[in-house]
Amino acid sequence: MDLRTMSDALDAAGRKLSPSGISKLENGDRRVDVDDLTVIAYLLRTSPAALLTPPDEQTTLTGVPETYLPEEIEKWARGELVLTSHGLLAYWQQEWVQNLNRIQYFESALRHGSPNQASHDDYKKRLADLKERQRLIRERGVQIDPTGRVFDAADYLDRFGPAE
Questions:
Q1: For the HTH cro/C1-type domain, which residue ranges apply (predicted)?
Q2: Whole-model pTM?
Q3: How many structural domains are present in the chain?
């Protein structure tokens, strides 16, 4: 969307912002307030969180330590993760349990046979991807809590495990 079209759309939505004002936003010469962010996200058919989340190739945000993974930053920007040791532990515990469940599902499906070769090959690829994810979770888990609480996930299971 060009600057004039965006300016006209903002005006129609009740938020006046000149083309030069929009240009200043794009160049980082003007800060975006919450009202601007909300209406711009609406006009671009996306969410404010999507506009706040860094692009895939960018791994850091100004003011946020570089110690966080892009996945953590994305979840944080979407309100799905709190960047504290407790929040990170809970997130990675959940990811560990879900990943183990998925691995077990695909290993079981492969043991019992797939309906056709294409499914079998797809399941093997998914299983390989899940095992790579398991490796990433293991590395991050050790960084977050060297005692291994991420991997026994007792805290997670106490909070979210099946009710007996």
A1: 17-51
A2: 0.66
A3: 2
